[in-house]
Amino acid sequence: MFSRLSIAQRIFGAFAVLLVLLAVLALAGNYGVGSLAGSYADYRAEAQRSITIGRMVNDTYAARMVEMGYRVDGAADKAEEFNSLIDSHSLNDQAAVDVFASDEESYSWLGELKADLATYRDAFTRSAALEEQRKTVGASLNASTETIRGLLNDLITGLTSRGDISSVAQAGHVNESALLMLLNAERYMATNDPADLDKVRENGATAVEQVSELSVGLFDPVLQEKTQAIADELDTYAGLVEELASAIEERNTVRAEQLDDFGPRIQAAFGVIQDNIYSRQDELGATAGKAASLTTMVLMVMTAFAMVAGLALAIVIGRWLSRAIRQMAANMRQLADGDLDLQLANLDARNELGQMAQALEVFRTHGKAVQAMDAEKAASAQAQADEQALRDGLQHEVASVVAAAVAGDFTARVGTHYDNPELVALAQSVNELVSTVDRGVSETGDVLSALADADLTQRVTGSYQGAFARLKADTNAVADKFATMMGELRETSKALKTATGEILSGANDLSERTTKQAAALQETTATIEQLATAVSGNAAKARQAADKTTSASHLAEEGGQVMSHANQAMEKIETSSAKISNIIGMIDDIAFQTNLLALNASVEAARAGEAGKGFAVVAVEVRRLAQSAAEASSEVKALIEQSASEVKTGSRLVADAASKLSAILDAVGENSLLMQEISAASHEQSSALEEVTGAVRQMDEMTQHNAALVEETNAAIEQTEAQASALDRIVDVFRIEAAAEDEAKAVPASGIRGLQQRASEAARAYLSRGNAALKADWSEF
């Protein structure tokens, strides 16, 4: 039954078995992968929840750190940053919260944490508002502090100036209590310690009581008004302190009871959720590992069974196919070797092997027919080889002729001994081509050789067509044109010699006139130089007088500066005397204040009793020294005022002398200005004469230069005449036909006569007008 199966049916059957095994293997793998995919999806969901809860933990931690930083410095940008972090918190992102929708416990817990986060934000907002209130009240306290200090200083200064020692002492006690109040207030704002607040209240009450006692003993309305202002400001300060204390206490309560509670609680709740997620991830990992192990084992067993079955089928089918194909290959090799008489097997089989045997039978039949056709082709190939040999011989001869022509030898020819008329015609055509090229090149070479020997009478006379006809016409045209140019060049050379002679005659006449003009200019230059020397002497003398006048003016100016310095020194002495007088007055005031302080010290020493006796003696001595200093300063002040009066008198006398000297200085200055103007005028005359002398000298140099130029022109003209003669000798070498020479004479006749006429007119114009010859004449020439 199996022997009737075709190759395709046997292969299809084997692969069908393998496909069934692969399908079973795929189903097992699909089941295992599906189980792993479910575990992976669950694990991925837990991982996403873990990432989300991690972002929530980080957002909460960042918000808490900013809130802690705000507690330290109270910066407004940190409050804005806190609100921004709460707004962007992952807990406020519904998409992030929906990740926990399948976990009802965590989802419910996140809802509660979201409400706690809002409460945490409200608590921070309240704390920030109280902090801003604290800053505002603190600024008001600072302003009130400066006001209280200023009022106390004004009060103590007023009491001191009136000499009320008792009131000054009471004011000092008020000042001490107020300073203690301000100091403890600063401590309370820094530490928030209730003990410091109690001290502030206690010192404030003491200060108010002392101000009231001081006000009772004062009768001056101004001082009473100042004490009342101090009392009012102390009350204001006390009210601000209470407001500050209220804000600080409420802020600290909010921080302790709400911020310090909600922040850690929210973060701890996130930690619990995160731990639950980690536990579920561990369980899912273990389950997925077991499923992967089972799937791997099943797949390995089924894969091994499929490999064994596939290997058995491959061996059975492979051996059958290999045996049949080796036999078929042996038959093909025998046919390829030319054995067309062998007997083919399996011709009657109905499978693919039978079809292949039948195809080989067709090849064998066709091979026998091809053997007969090969014999006929061999005879035809021999005839074509003989004809190709003749063509190769002709090609070799044509190549030899062409190579000789390329080398410049046009005498070689192709033989005409072939039996084929076509080959004979081709050989004759090549020979005719080489002959035509030989004749054209030879005649053209003869004409060029004649041109090289100065013979312009040779021409190309042969009959040609196409490119050789154009070569003939171009060569003859070149010879004709060259002959005409030689004729024209002869006539032009003769005309150039004639014009050069006329120019040389005019140039000699111009040289004589230029020499006479140079002699006249030399005499004029000598006369002008003598006049310039005389004017220069006058200018030098005027300049010396101006210099002496300038020196006198400088001496007068120096005298004026000395008087001015003396006047300034007197003014400085007067200013210094006034300053010394002011200093003496200040010393007198200091002595008075020292006397007053000594008096206060004596009062305090008296109040101190026995302990202050020694200090009282020192105070008395200080008071005596202060009185002595005041008397001495009065005497010095009187002497300084007398000296200042005498200095004013001297300063007035110096000012009068300075005004007289200034008048003298103005007169000397005017005289110096006049002398400078005279010197300048003489110098301008001298400069003008020097410019005239220079111009005349330059004209003399130009005239001499023109004379030299005329001599050079004469030499150049003579050289040009010699070169024209040489050109005649060169042109006479060429031989041209009579017709070409007549044509050359007729063409340039008018040009030569025009050239001679313009040369004559230019020479006459130069001789009659000298250097003023028109530029147009020379450009036309």
Topology diagram in text:
Elements: H1 7-73, H2 76-87, H3 94-98, H4 104-162, H5 165-191, H6 194-216, H7 221-336, H8 352-406, H9 421-452, H10 467-608, H11 613-731, H12 738-746, H13 749-769, H14 775-780
Helix pairs in contact: 1-2, 1-7, 4-5, 4-7, 5-6, 6-7, 7-8, 8-9, 9-10, 10-11, 10-12, 10-13
> What characteristic shape results from the CA principal axes?
flat
Query: Mean pLDDT, rounded to whole units?
Result: 72
- What is the CA-atom radius of gyration, in angstroms? 69 Å
The string of secondary-structure elements, in order, is HHHHHHHHHHHHHH
Helix share bin: over 70%
Contiguous low-pLDDT stretches (5 residues minimum) are 747-752, 769-781
Task: Classify the secondary structure makeup into a structural class.
Answer: mainly alpha
CATH architecture of the domain at 516-738: Orthogonal Bundle
Largest sheet report: none
Number of helices: 14
Percent strand? under 5%
Pfam families: HAMP, HAMP_2, MCPsignal
GO molecular function, one term: transmembrane signaling receptor activity
Main location: membrane
Keywords: Membrane, Methylation, Transducer, Transmembrane, Transmembrane helix
Task: Tell me about this structure.
With 781 residues, the protein is an all-alpha fold. Among the domains are: 129-262, Alpha-catenin/vinculin-like (Four Helix Bundle (Hemerythrin (Met), subunit A), Up-down Bundle); 516-738, Helix Hairpins. The chain is 89% helix and 0% strand. The chain contains 14 helices and no strands. Helix 1 (7-73) runs antiparallel to helix 2, helix 1 packs antiparallel against helix 7 and helix 10 packs across helix 13 (749-769). The longest helix has 142 residues, at 467-608. The protein starts with 6 loop residues before the first helix and ends with a helix. The chain crosses the membrane at residues 297-318. Residues 492-721 form the Methyl-accepting transducer domain.
